[in-house]
């Protein structure tokens, strides 16, 4: 399994003086689903938003395979002057490593599901935001993967929470990033909805070889569908391991005491 | 396809109102005379002078003002994700008003200024535009520190209030003719935009429309909030500044040359969302431009009270047309959500 993201000495939060977490070291691998667990207010969403680039890291770095690839491309660029333009274009296209799905993805009224998903292709569409044939195939593929192709023409404001969460995941998929970050994707869903989203994430990790990191409070669901856990505890430590390892070490029991 | 049919209908409506605005006016002219004047026949005739010196420039001004304010309204509503945002939400009209008040006050205190030819011709518009630009530069400078759009909205409101307070102060110290000049400007008019003024206004509006069309892709992203835009790696500050630039060029120019014309900028985007059932800016921007121009032409036709010889302030007519639409969309609620 190749490492897609590596976190080195990361500090997250809203103030450099009092970061929520500091000295974080972790990595995410292709084809795995990782559950991010921790009590309310511990900093799960803050960590996800920092990884997604919405919040700046207070310290440390997040190195993605894309960035490593970029460094390689830059070296290549220096050596092969003739390919300068092509490499630059390539570099621009692959500069995003993460796609983020918030816990309550905002939706627009009078905006179709197809158009909503298509906005995820921002970096690939033309100046008017219109897709070429390849782009249309990518949107269609993402809708199909998430089981929402039949909703394509519907107004996204008229969908149920579960349906729209699938659409938001499709929108993240078309961004064509190796890493998917989801903030409590099952929070407002019924049991069937929760299982269906968790199953979808598993399927995407395996079939699309993505690394998926999602925060949740549903331990049963996480135990069933995650390969790895990141557990944030009150002592500001990030524990990593398989669900079985962390359970055996008593970390999970401590989490809910 | 339904979208294309509706756009064609709007285009047809606009064409009809363009013709109606030229054929109808406060001075009664036979249709045949107007037609002959439009064809360029009898250039010494009364009808020719009315049509070419008055009605056609006025029609073009109303057309541009309607397009500009509506396209501006769409961008402000999307940027702030607020259905009641309008082109003046950032305090542009107050800035322009302050500019005009300063100019009027300046010429009443120093009458020599009125003898400078370009000031006499373009003074009101130039000062109004500079006032609008100053407000926008203030907003852009503050927006570097303000991360949330709600903060910007409050800032715009505060700038607007401060501008109004300063205008009241200037009015208090103004003489009667200066006060009248200012009040007439606030009522809005398309009548005085001819020749050089029309050319300047058209150039600024054209530039504003080009920037607005360039904003379409980013506006669609902003519909789903700034966090989403950031997660896509988009520079939200750069896009915000581009929207501000479009606003200054469009709303700033209309306010400078025609006065602060309200309600069309709020109402038209909502009408388009209702008619098209589509908030995609690839539809909303051209639809708002066409419907906005049509609404403004209709307001202009009504304000001329055809054949009566008197004219109403265009701002009053635009308000009476826009307010029922806004009340309707609020009551219908669904169309208000962005």
Question: What is the element layout, followed by pairings?
Answer:
The complex is a heterodimer of chains A (257) and B (338).
Chain A: E1 3-12, E2 21-29, E3 33-37, H1 44-52, E4 59-64, H2 65-79, H3 84-93, E5 98-101, H4 113-118, H5 133-145, H6 161-173, E6 179-183, H7 191-208, E7 211-215, H8 219-225, E8 228-233, E9 237-241, H9 243-248, H10 251-255
Parallel strand pairs in A: 3-7, 3-8, 5-6, 6-7
Antiparallel strand pairs in A: 1-2, 1-4, 8-9
Chain B: H1 2-23, H2 31-38, H3 46-80, H4 92-109, H5 117-143, H6 149-172, H7 176-187, H8 195-222, H9 226-231, H10 236-258, H11 264-276, H12 281-303, H13 314-332
Helix pairs in contact in B: 1-3, 1-12, 2-3, 3-8, 3-10, 3-11, 3-12, 4-5, 4-6, 4-7, 4-10, 5-6, 5-10, 8-10, 11-12, 11-13, 12-13
Summary?
Chain A has 257 residues and is an alpha/beta fold.
Within CATH, the superfamily of chain B carries the name: ABC transporter involved in vitamin B12 uptake, BtuC
Q: Tell me the total number of β-strands of chain B.
A: 0
Shape of chain B: globular
Major β-sheet profile of chain A: 6 strands, mixed
CATH architecture of the largest domain in chain A: 3-Layer(aba) Sandwich
Low-confidence segments of chain A, given as residue ranges, are: 87-95
**Name of the level-1 CATH class of chain B:** Mainly Alpha
Number of helices, where a helix is a run of at least 4 consecutive DSSP H or I residues of chain B: 13
Which pair of chains has the greatest number of interface residues, and how are they split between the two chains?
A-B, 32 and 27 residues
Instruction: Assign the structural class of chain A, choosing from mainly alpha, mainly beta, alpha/beta, alpha+beta, or little secondary structure.
Output: alpha/beta
Global shape of chain A = globular
Number of individual domains of chain A? 2
Domains of chain B, number: 1
Query: How would you sum up the major sheet of chain B?
Result: none
């Amino acid at each position: 399994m190749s490492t897609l993201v590596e976190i080195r000495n990361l500090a997250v939060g809203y103030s450099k003086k009092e970061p929520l977490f500091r000295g974080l070291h972790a990595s995410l691998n292709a084809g795995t689903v990782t559950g991010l667990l921790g009590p309310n207010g511990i900093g799960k969403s803050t960590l996800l938003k920092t990884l997604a680039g919405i919040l700046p890291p207070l310290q440390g770095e997040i190195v993605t395979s894309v960035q490593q690839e970029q460094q390689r491309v830059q070296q290549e660029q220096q050596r092969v002057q003739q390919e300068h333009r092509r490499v630059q274009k390539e570099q621009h296209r692959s500069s995003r490593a993460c796609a983020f799905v918030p816990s309550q993805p905002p939706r627009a009224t009078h905006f179709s599901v197809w158009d909503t998903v298509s906005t995820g292709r921002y970096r690939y569409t033309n100046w008017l935001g219109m897709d070429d044939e390849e782009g249309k195939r990518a949107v269609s593929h993402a809708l199909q993967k998430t089981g929402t192709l039949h909703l394509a023409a519907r107004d996204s404001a008229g969908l149920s929470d579960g349906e729209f969460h699938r659409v938001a995941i499709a929108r993240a998929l078309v961004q064509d990033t190796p890493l998917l970050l989801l903030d409590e994707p099952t929070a407002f869903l019924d049991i069937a909805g929760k299982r269906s989203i968790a199953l979808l994430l598993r399927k995407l990790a395996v079939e699309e070889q993505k690394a998926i990191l999602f925060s949740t409070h549903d331990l049963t669901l996480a135990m069933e569908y995650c390969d790895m856990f990141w557990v944030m505890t009150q002592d500001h430590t990030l524990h990593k391991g398989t669900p079985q390892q962390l359970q055996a070490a008593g970390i999970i029991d401590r989490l809910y005491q | 396809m339904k979208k294309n049919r509706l756009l064609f209908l709007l285009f047809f409506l606009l064409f009809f109102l363009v013709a109606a605005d030229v054929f109808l006016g406060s001075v009664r002219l036979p249709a045949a005379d107007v037609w002959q004047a439009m064809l360029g026949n009898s250039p010494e005739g009364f009808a020719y002078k009315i049509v070419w010196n008055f009605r056609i420039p006025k029609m073009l001004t109303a057309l541009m003002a309607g397009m500009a304010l509506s396209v501006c309204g769409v961008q402000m509503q999307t940027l702030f994700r607020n259905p009641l945002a309008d082109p003046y939400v950032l305090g542009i009209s107050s800035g322009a008003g302050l500019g005009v008040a300063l100019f009027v006050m300046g010429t009443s205190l120093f009458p020599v200024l009125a003898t400078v030819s370009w000031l006499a011709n373009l003074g009101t518009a130039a000062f109004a535009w500079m006032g609008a630009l100053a407000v926008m530069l203030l907003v852009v400078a503050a927006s570097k520190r303000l991360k949330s759009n709600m903060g910007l909205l409050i800032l715009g409101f505060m700038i607007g209030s401060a501008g109004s307070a300063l205008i009241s102060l200037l009015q208090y110290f103004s003489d009667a003719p200066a006060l009248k000049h200012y009040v007439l400007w606030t009522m809005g008019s398309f009548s005085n935009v001819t020749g050089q003024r029309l050319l300047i206004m058209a150039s600024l509006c054209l530039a504003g429309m080009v920037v607005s069309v360039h904003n379409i892709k980013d506006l669609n992203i902003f519909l789903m909030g700034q966090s989403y835009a950031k997660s896509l790696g988009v520079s939200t500050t750069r896009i915000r500044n581009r929207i501000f630039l479009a606003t200054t060029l469009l709303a700033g120019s209309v306010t400078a040359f025609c006065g602060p014309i309200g309600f069309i900028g709020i109402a038209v985007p909502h009408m388009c969302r209702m008619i098209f059932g589509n908030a995609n800016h690839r539809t909303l921007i051209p639809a708002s431009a066409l419907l906005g121009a049509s609404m403004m032409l209709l307001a202009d036709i009504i304000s001329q009270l055809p054949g009566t010889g008197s004219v109403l302030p265009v701002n009053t007519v635009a308000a009476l047309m826009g307010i029922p639409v806004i009340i309707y969309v609020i009551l219908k609620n669904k169309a208000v959500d962005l």
